[in-house]
Design brief:
heterodimer; A: 787 residues; alpha+beta; six-stranded mixed β-barrel; B: 219 residues; alpha/beta; Rossmann fold; 6 helices
């Protein structure tokens, strides 16, 4: 081994703490790319493969009832490639193990052969036998949550009749990768499942013999999707068509896609932060190493080593840090990606979902981090290379100090000698101080953003389940029922209040813009279900006119006072003019609210309701569930309390996992910056500190002096970090706004406090490590040598 | 390789008397710095006793040694060791802030003839000036004992003499017990006592009948 490499090895060992902390920052950068981008790619691959294999449709349409013969007409629409039809209904599941209501979505499968489009993928068991009318295939998540296996049977209330169905298979479907029950926001696998049965089973049960109530199509490559949707709507209008919608509005796809988009965004931001910090740290540490080795550099050059050899020698420090970081990052990233995808698999039911980072991605992650790190290293090494040997022989000129602006303002007088030393050391290198602060600020920001996400979700859930949905039970009826049903419901033992609602799908049009929505007809002076805006304030239901979500109003480009054209997509399909009487800022859904009476008038169907909200006595809840199960017309019973509970359980778990990762990442940065900063101060000012010890300063007093500088930088970083975190959170809240939800921009004081406290703890830990080193300083040795 | 015990000092029996100036002479490696470090509480002898006014430093803890240095010892180093981020006055104040009965930093700087340079940073002072600030810093707490380790080692003859005359003057005016380490034999003439060291032992102890004038010594 050459002498120069021997020197490298020894110095690497001496600087092992610093090399390791830089390697960790590099590793975190690579890890974040490999994990986030890798899972994004894996998810996209799995999604596309699943869509392709199951022949996922491009456009869906629901309708009341159309004869099967109409299928030919659909096929002949220009731009349509393939058509499939089916019968689908919701039914109550009679699961006698608990009082919790459960619901199934029943979907028909063709009697012979497989569905042309939206095919299912069997995971266990077999397909429905030809002619078997009591066989059913259930969705995998539901089967898993309920421990169902092929061979078990399940009791279902279909059209008021209790029936036992045999489970013959367990399957997944691209339409239900994320299966949310109607009216819910989150999968509830215990209480909601998808059931596939033969059309011969479902058709007669729902009076759909030779008819269908849902159709979907794929498009030819050159199709104009808007034109196709228009033609479908025109064709199906007489059959109660509820308006065709494209794939991007398909509920499961919509949520999966939103998740993918979010992944893509965070997968781009976070690695950039790590990269920036790695560049800065390498610049800092190598810069310091080079200035302490001016003499050695001069000697090497005087002996005839070339600039390249000298530069290369110092660059090797960076090479070691980057290789070490790269190895940890690649291995750790693949591990973490595996875990990440496993977590996704709990929510999104995609077959072949496997964490498979491409070689190209691994290469890209490594190269981009390595290039960034070398950028920082080269900037520092340039100084060594450019140093003329004669100048390098002389010791570096003593650091120049002068009272800075802050001191000239009189702050200096308030500080003791220690305070002034800290202040001057910070202000002497404002650029380095700024970047150190920025680095720490970024870790504060990472934590702030992480906790902000939870605050937002919590806020949204609180608003939805404690302020908007105040009912104990929400009932959905299979078909519209007369308003008088409310008296029957009120008579049930334990029911203390009944409010009924009417929902009508409709198309809203303003100028050339249009949107399909579900208009909710609410009671005047309702207490159980109210319109609440983002500020937690109740918006009274207007006597006439419609109140729209801000997202919807934006899309239609309408504001309060404008007049819309509304086309009812159900019943008599009336078309009328309608005044926008209010726009509300809300987070979930694209809502349109009206007074129930006004909606009756608009739709031309008076005194009919689609469902009801009940307030019930908690003790009678089980009893009421039993009674409701006996009412055939009630197909859905949702309980906001159980929805919230299931959501909060999943959220709590998610918070712990995510907070752990964020904390780990943030600490790597904070410790990297603070530890290296303190180590460098120690090496720059070891003699000064030793002098102070000799003059009778105690260890703790000297430690304050050294760590005061890092402490000041950390304290300055915290408000900066909050600011960056606040801005990033705002950008994320705005950037992640989708058609179905908006993320509220709320951050609890706790979030700011927690992110600051965690970073201060990381700073104290780094300071403690350096302080131990300070305690071991050999006073006599330091004073004897000239720097 | 086995460990070999090397004695930096052995059989040293040595006294410093109040108010006297002692010059410790010796070549490098003679053990004079080790002796000074032990007297100053920076180092601890592996055996033997160091008695300061009836207290045995040999039995002091690390913290007690720090307190001893803080209260009683002034140090002047070859390379000044000023805090570069503090002005001359502030460097002195660093010590007076933690002392019980110090002189004012201005007073201390006036004693070394730097009353006009109090607000200068080390980088704005010459080597001789920096060493005089270091002396002012060492004497400002009115130490019982002033230890100077090669105080002129990094200076040219002219400046070195100036620094020595400051030490001489301080010793006469404040009656501070002073020990100066040097390898420059001619400086010995300045002391009340000259102790010559060689190979870790005291080779010779000479008491001067009268102290020479700084201007008269040959460099």
């Amino acid at each position: 081994m050459s002498a120069l490499n021997m020197k490298l090895l020894r110095e690497l060992w001496k600087l092992k703490g610093q090399v390791a902390s830089i390697a960790l920052v590099v590793a975190a950068g690579i890890m974040s790319i490999v994990t986030m981008r890798g899972s994004y790619e894996s998810l996209v691959t799995a999604q596309q493969q699943f869509y392709r294999e199951s022949r996922f449709a491009d456009v869906w349409v629901s309708l009341v009832r159309a004869p099967e013969g109409l299928r030919v007409n659909l096929e002949s629409i220009e731009g349509i490639d393939a058509v499939d039809t089916r019968v689908t209904f919701f039914a109550t599941l009679d699961l006698d193990d608990s009082g919790i209501p459960a619901q199934g979505r029943f979907i028909s499968l063709p009697e012979i052969g497989r569905p042309v489009l939206n095919d299912i993928m069997l995971r266990q068991g077999r397909y429905i036998a030809v002619g078997a009318i009591d066989e059913v295939i259930v969705s995998e998540n539901f089967a898993r949550a309920r421990n169902y296996l092929p061979g078990d049977s399940i009791r279902v209330v279909i059209n008021g009749r209790s029936r036992d169905l045999d489970i013959v298979g367990i399957a997944i479907s691209a339409e239900h990768t994320y299966a949310v029950p109607p009216g819910a926001l989150y999968p509830e696998d215990e209480r909601y499942g998808i059931f596939w049965a033969s059309r011969e089973t479902l058709g007669p049960a729902f009076n759909m013999d030779g008819a269908f109530n849902e159709a979907f199509v794929t498009l030819t490559p050159d199709a104009n999707i808007d034109a196709v949707i228009e033609s479908i709507d025109a064709l199906l209008r007489p059959y109660g068509g509820l308006g065709a919608y494209p794939r991007r509005d398909q509920p499961s796809h919509l949520i999966l896609q939103a998740e993918l988009d979010q992944n893509r965004v965070t997968g781009a931001i976070i690695p950039i932060i790590f990269l920036g910090v790695a560049v800065f740290l390498l610049y800092l540490v190598l810069g310091r190493l080079i200035s302490t080795q001016r003499g050695e550099i001069a000697v090497l050059k005087a002996f005839g080593y070339s600039d390249w050899e000298v530069g290369g020698h110092f660059l090797l420090f960076a090479v070691v840090a980057v290789l070490l970081g790269g190895l940890i990052g690649l291995v750790g990233g693949i591990q973490l990606g595996d875990a990440y995808i496993e977590m996704y698999a709990q929510y999104f039911n995609l077959p072949n979902l496997e964490y498979l980072p491409s070689a190209g991605l691994l290469f890209f992650a490594f190269i981009s981090c390595a290039l960034g790190a070398f950028g920082g290293a080269i900037a520092a090494v340039r100084r060594a290379v450019l140093l003329p040997p004669a100048e390098a022989m002389r010791p570096e000129a003593p650091a120049r100090f002068e009272p800075g602006i802050i001191e000239k303002l009189g702050v200096g007088k308030l500080l003791g000698a220690t305070g002034r030393m800290v202040l001057r050391n910070v202000t002497r290198k404002p650029v380095q101080g700024f970047f150190s602060s920025l680095g720490i600020a970024l870790s504060v920001a990472i934590l702030t953003v992480g906790f902000f996400m939870f605050d937002s979700v919590n806020h949204m859930m609180d608003l939805q389940f404690r302020h908007i949905q105040r009912e104990d039970l929400a009932l959905t009826f299979r078909e519209i029922l007369p308003e008088t049903v409310r008296y029957d419901l009120a008579n049930l033992q334990g029911v203390s209040r009944v409010e009924t609602y009417r929902i009508v799908p409709a198309r809203l049009r303003f100028g050339h813009r249009e949107d399909e929505v579900v208009i909710q007809g609410m009671e005047l002076n309702a207490e159980l279900r109210r319109i609440i805006n983002a500020d937690n304030r109740e918006v009274p239901v207007p006597a006439t006119g419609i109140v729209l979500s801000a997202v919807l109003a934006d899309r239609l480009m309408v504001s309060s006072g404008d007049e819309l054209i509304v086309e009812m997509l159900e019943g008599k399909r009336k078309i009328a003019k309608l005044l926008v009487s209010g726009v509300i800022e809300d987070f979930l859904g694209v809502s349109a609210y009206m007074n129930k009476q006004a909606l009756w008038q608009l739709s031309g169907e008076a005194n009919v309701i689609s469902g009801a909200f009940l307030a019930v006595d908690a003790l009678s809840l089980d009893d009421i569930h039993r009674q409701l199960k006996q009412i055939p017309a009630v197909t859905g019973v949702a309980s906001p309390a159980t929805m919230l509970q299931s959501f909060e359980e999943q959220l709590a778990q998610g918070i712990l996992i995510a907070a752990g990762f964020l904390l780990g990442f943030a600490c790597i940065i904070a410790v990297g910056v603070i530890y290296n900063g303190a180590r460098i101060s120690l090496s720059e000012r070891g003699r000064e500190l030793a002098s102070l010890r000799v003059m009778g300063f105690h260890r703790s007093e000297v430690a304050w002096l050294l760590l005061g500088e890092q402490g000041t930088i950390t304290l300055l970083a915290i408000p900066l970090g909050w600011l960056i975190g606040y801005s990033l959170s705002y950008a994320i809240a705005t950037g992640l706004q989708t058609d179905i939800y908006r993320i509220p921009f709320v951050a609890e004081p706790r979030t700011y406090l927690l992110s600051a406290v965690l970073i201060v703890l990381a700073a104290i830990a780094s300071g403690w490590v350096v302080r131990r080193r300070l305690d071991r300083i050999d006073l006599v040795e330091v004073l004897k040598t000239r720097e | 390789m086995g460990e070999i015990t090397v004695h930096a000092l052995k059989n040293v029996d040595f006294e410093l008397f109040e108010g006297e100036m002692t010059v410790l002479l010796g070549a490098s490696g003679s053990g004079k710095s080790t002796l000074l470090n032990i007297i100053g509480g920076l180092d601890v002898a592996s055996s033997g006793d160091v008695i300061y006014r009836d207290q045995n430093l040999h039995e002091f803890s690390d913290r007690a040694l720090t307190d001893y240095r803080r209260a009683h010892v002034g140090f002047v180093f070859q390379f000044y060791n000023l805090i570069s981020s503090l002005t001359a006055k502030e460097n002195v104040a660093l010590v007076t802030d933690i002392a019980s009965d110090p002189m004012s930093p201005i007073e201390a700087l006036a004693l070394v003839g730097l009353e006009d340079r109090v607000n200068h940073f080390p980088s704005q002072l010459s080597g001789g000036e920096q060493q005089r600030v270091a002396i002012a810093r060492a004497i400002a707490k009115r130490p019982s004992i002033l230890l100077c380790d090669e105080p002129t080692g990094a200076l040219d003859a002219e400046t070195g003499k100036l620094v020595l005359s400051v030490l001489d003057q301080v010793n006469c005016q404040t009656q501070t017990t002073t020990a100066i380490i040097t390898h420059n034999a001619s400086i010995g003439a300045l002391g009340d006592v000259v102790v010559r060291m060689s190979s870790g032992e005291i080779a010779e102890r000479i008491e001067n009948t009268s102290r020479a004038n700084v201007d008269d010594i040959e460099w």
